[in-house]
Amino acid sequence: MRSRRLSVRQAARRRALPSVLAQAGHKYDYDLVIIGCGVGGHGAALHAVESGLRVAIIEGHDIGGTCVNRGCVPSKALLAASGRVRELQNTMHLKSMGIQVGSVSFERQPIADHATNLASTIQNNLKRSLEAIGVDILIGSGKLTGPHTIKYNLPGRVDVGGEVTARDIIIATGSVPFVPPGIPIDGKTVFTSDHALKLEWVPNWVAIIGSGYIGLEFSDVYTALGSEVTFIEAMESLMPGFDKEIAKLAQRILINPRKIDYHTGVLATKVTPGVPGVKPVLVELTDFKTKQVVDTLEVDAVLVATGRAPFTQGLNLAAVGAETDRRGFIPVNEKMQVLGKDGKVVPHVYCIGDANGKYMLAHAASAQGISAVENMCGRPHELNHLSVPAACFTHPEVSFVGLTEEAAREAATAGGFGSQVAVVKTSFKANSKALAEKEGEGMAKMIYRKDTGEILGVHIFGLHAADLIHEASNAVATRQTVNDIKFNVHAHPTLSEVLDELFKGAHVKAGKPAKAPAAMDTAKQPVAA
Ligand SMILES: Cc1cc2nc3c(=O)[nH]c(=O)nc-3n(C[C@H](O)[C@H](O)[C@H](O)COP(=O)(O)OP(=O)(O)OC[C@H]3O[C@@H](n4cnc5c(N)ncnc54)[C@H](O)[C@@H]3O)c2cc1C
Ligand SMILES: NC(=O)c1ccc[n+]([C@@H]2O[C@H](COP(=O)([O-])OP(=O)(O)OC[C@H]3O[C@@H](n4cnc5c(N)ncnc54)[C@H](O)[C@@H]3O)[C@@H](O)[C@H]2O)c1
User: Fold this and answer.
1) β-strand 228-233 against 205-209: which pairing, if any?
2) Contact at 8 Å (CB) between 384 and 358?
C-alpha cells in the first residue's frame, strides 16, 4: 500500500461499531461496504444512503483518492493560475481590447500552494459530506475474505482495523500512474503527475512522454510558466485519442505557436535521471515500428504521462472467485457486477471507476457508482458510456461526447448504415460572445445519422468547451435526436449559440417537429417585464 496520511484515532474508536449494528438484528454489519474512497466510492456512498442503505467506506490512503489529491482538483488549480499568467502576458491580445499591463511575474510556491490548499479543502468537504449523512469511514487497506466479508487494516498497526460484513460490496480502488519499463522515477528530474502537481520546480526544458490528457494539460501549465516542452508520442500523431480533425486544430493553436516541439512514432525506451541544474536527463528514443534507436535527447526534466494502471493488488479477489485481467483491471458487465473466473456474475460484488478500466474519468467513476447502487437496489440500470462527456482543460479547452468521426464511420460501415453518416461544423469565429472576448479560434462538429437524426458524437475545441459539451451529452443520454434539440432556444449572445448553430445546421431526412413536454403545454407562460 502507498504511504498513509490519515489520522487513525477515529478508526480505532470505530472498531466496535459494526458488531453493535449486527446485534441490532441485521444479518450483515452493513448493507453496503465500499472499498476505496475516491470520487467513485464517494458518489456511490451518497446515492446508497439516499436509497436507504447502511453504508461504510474503507479508505487506505487519503480520502478523495486520485481526483481530489493527485488529479482533477490540483491540476485544475495549476491550470487556472498558469492560465491567468498566460492571459496577462499576451499583450497583443489585451492590446486589441485597449488594455495595457506592465510586466507580469509569478511566484512558483504560492501557485503550488494554491493547488495543495484546494485539494485539502475539497478533501475536507468530501469527508464532511459523508459523515453528515452517517457513512462510517473505516481506515485501513481493504481485502476480501469471503463473499460478504472484508478485512481492513493499516500495515504495522494492530490497534487499527477489523473485519466487517456486508450484503453488497463495491470495489472502487482506482488507479496509479503507469510507467513503461526502462524509466526509473526519481521524483525530481523524472516524475509522474503525482510529483508534477506539487510544482516543486519549473524546469527550463521538460520532455513529456505521452500527448494524452495529462501531457496536454501539463504542457499548458509549463509553457505558461516559461518552460520549453518536447512531446514524445508513440503514435503517428499528437493527441491520438481525440477526433483527428479536432486534434489537428488543437495542434495549430495549442502546440505550434508555443515553445513546444515533438517527436511522434517513437517510444522513450530508456531514461537516465539527471541532477537539477547540474546534469541533464537523457532520453533514448526508439522508432515505434522499426524498434531502432533513433535519437537521444538531453533535457532538464521528464514528465511520464503514458496512462494509468489499475490499483487492484492485495484485494484477494480469489475469495469471491474472481481475478483481474492481464492488465490488472477487474472485469465487470454493464451493470458494474464483477465477473468471476468462469465469466459468470459474482453475486453482490461490484467494481466501479478506474479499477474496471471502462472509462478513466472522475464523473464516469461516480456515475458507475450510482448505477451499481441502482442495480443492487433492484432497479436495473446500465450507464451509457457513450453519453459520458470528456474534457481536456487546456487554454482553450477540448471536449467531446460519443464517437470520433473516424470511429463513427467505422461503426456505421460495420452496421450497414455507412452512407447515412453526416458531419456538420460551426466556428467560434461567427459567435458574437467569442468575438467580444477576442477568442474566435475554435470549432464544434457533430457526427450524426441523416436517416434517424441520432447523434453519434460531438466535439468542441474553443473557449469554455468543457462547459459547452453538456447540452450534447445530455441529449445523447436522454436519446434525443437532432430534430428534438434543434428547436431549443439559446440566450444571445452566448457561447452556447455555437452548439445551437451546429444543431440547426444538421439535415435529417425524416424531419419531425420539436416535441413540447405535456406538462409544459398548460403551464403559465412567463410574461416579459
Ligand atoms: C493529473 C490528473 C488529472 C486528472 N484530471 C481529471 C479531470 O479533470 N477530470 C476527470 O474527470 N478526471 C480526471 N482525472 C482522472 C480521475 O482522477 C480518475 O478517473 C478518478 O480519480 C477515478 O476515481 P476512482 O474513485 O475510480 O479512483 P481513485 O480516485 O483513484 O480512488 C481510489 C481510492 O481507493 C483507495 N484504495 C485503493 N486500494 C484500496 C484498498 N485495498 N483499501 C482501501 N482503499 C483503497 C485509494 O487510496 C484511493 O483513495 C485526472 C487524473 C490525473 C492523474
Ligand atoms: N481532463 C481530464 O479529464 C483528465 C486529465 C488528466 C488525466 N485524465 C485521465 O487520466 C488518465 C491518464 O492520462 P494520460 O494522459 O497519462 O493517459 P492517456 O491515455 O490520455 O495518454 C497517454 C498517451 O501516451 C502515449 N504513450 C503511451 N506509452 C508511451 C510510450 N512508451 N512512449 C511514448 N508515448 C506513449 C499514448 O499513445 C497516449 O497518447 C486518462 O485515462 C484520463 O482519462 C483525465
Assistant:
1) parallel
2) no
Taking only the tens place, the pLDDT of each residue in 316-367 is: 999 999 999 999 999 999 999 999 999 999 999 999 999 999 999 999 999 9
The predicted model scores a pTM of 0.94
Q: Rounded to an integer, what distance in angstroms lies between the CA atom of residue 250 and that of residue 61? A: 37
Helices 39-50 + 108-132 axis angle, to 10: 30
Q: How far apart are CA 375 and CA 381, in angstroms?
A: 6
CA 45 to chain CA centroid, Å, is 19
Question: At 443, which amino acid appears?
Answer: M
User: Smallest Cα–Cα separation from 43: which of 26, 55, 25, 30?
Assistant: 55
Tell me if 352 sits within 8 A of 364, measured CB to CB.
no
- 373, 42 contact by CB (below 8 A): no
Contact between 452 and 487 under an 8 Å Cβ cutoff? The reply is no
Query: Which one-letter amino acid corresponds to residue 75?
Result: S
List helix spans (H) across 235-319: 244-250
User: Which residue puts its alpha carbon closest to atom 45 of ligand 1?
Assistant: 36
d(CA 380, CA 403): 25
* DSSP state, residue 275: B
Mapped onto helix, strand or coil, the DSSP state of residue 495 is coil
Per-residue model confidence as pLDDT tens digits over 269-294: 999 999 988 999 999 999 999 999 99
Burial class of residue 400 in the structure, from the number of CB atoms within 10 Å of its CB (0-12 exposed, 13-18 middle, 19+ buried): buried
Contact indicator for 77, 118 with CB cutoff of 8 Å: yes
> Phi and psi dihedrals of 447, rounded to 5?
-110, 125
ipTM passes above 0.90: yes
- pLDDT above 70: residue 520: no
Ligand 1: residue of 37, 67, 392 to mutate (most ligand atoms within 8 A of CB) is: 67
The confidence band for 256, taking pLDDT boundaries of 50, 70 and 90, is very high
Model pLDDT, residue 160: 75
Give the pocket of ligand 1 (CB within 6 Å).
Answer: 35-41, 58-62, 65-67, 70-72, 75, 141-142, 172-175, 193, 214, 311, 314-315, 353-355, 360-363, 365, 393
User: Rounded to an integer, what distance in angstroms lies between the CA atom of residue 22 and that of residue 26?
Assistant: 5
Three-state DSSP at 114 gives helix
Grouping H, G, I as helix, E, B as strand and the rest as coil, residue 313 is coil
